[in-house]
Specification:
Mean pLDDT: 87
Shape: rod-shaped
Number of strands: 5
Order of helices and strands: HEHEHEHEHEHHHHHHHHHHHH
Low-confidence stretches: 1-6
Strand content: 5-15%
Structural class: alpha/beta
Radius of gyration: 35 Å
Amino acid sequence: MTSVSQSSFQTTILVVDDIPENITVLGELLKPVYTVRVSTNGRRALESAIVHPLPDLILLDVMMPEMDGYEVLSRLRDIPETRDIPVIFITALDGVEDESLGFDLGAADYITKPLRPAIVMARIKAQLELKQARDRLRDQNAWLETEVARRMRQNQRIQDASMRALASLAETRDNETGNHILRTQGYVNVLAKELAKKPHHAAALTPAIIDSYTKAAPLHDIGKVGIPDEILNKPGKFEPEEWAIMQTHARIGSDAIWRAIQNEEDQSELDFLHIAMEISHYHHEKWDGSGYPEGLKGKSIPLSARLMALADVFDALISKRVYKSAFPVDNAVEIIIEGKGKHFDPEIVEAFLSRLDEFRSIAARYRDQEKA
């Protein structure tokens, strides 16, 4: 006697035939090996096919009243749960056209009557093995997709944390805190999303670009690592030569980022670092051309840097520095409005005023703690 593995009985086969004698023959042949489910017409077959556990294979008679096998198969392929279940037609027909129609509809195989047990079992075994292979591949692909997504999220978190850590080095030397980074990131994100509502900015401020702006924002002052402490932390007004040195932090930052990425072959994967270079280099430019280091004017200043300019100045105004006390938010708003069309892009000032409540919320959420 041939031994039967326990797993075979966990395989369910749905037999669909309107002739009881045919069902009896197939049942006696299959039940010693498989779990068998029976339907005597097409409509009941459709109902039985979606009952869990779903059948692993369907043996489907072609010639049935009311709904023939072709229509049953067509409907099975329209149902998501049953779309991938292999179907073997059982038929007395032997025409090539009949077989072509079945294969076109998605039949896996044909078994012709009269049934020969060895052929029936061989065809069933072959289709079940193919299904098991497809299922394993599908499950493996699903696992791989989930794992890739998880690793990408993990890498993204590591990347973001690394960027904030690098930025914090510069901010710490300037007696600022990591909260300045979080606040300015939030401000840039809010401003960019508000500007994106305008038709002429929509193409330049897609969600992906806004995300890159937000990720790049923490590196705006990375160049401060190259400024001597006695200048960086001077509590009073700079002498002209000191101010000239202080201004070099913009170029120092962008040059440092460029040196880090210039030898990378695929620059497309480093878009946010190219944006970080822009922000670092140009965020002290002013709308009227009076800024540094290049003295750019108006829209010749990259949009990312124009956004950062307002975010950085607003945060500097409401924060305590070695050379000043923190301004109340209302006073900072007045200064931003006074700078409209001079220091700041007028549209960005309008975006700022439209989302002022969110600026207040971000400032409160990430406010600096007083040092003991």
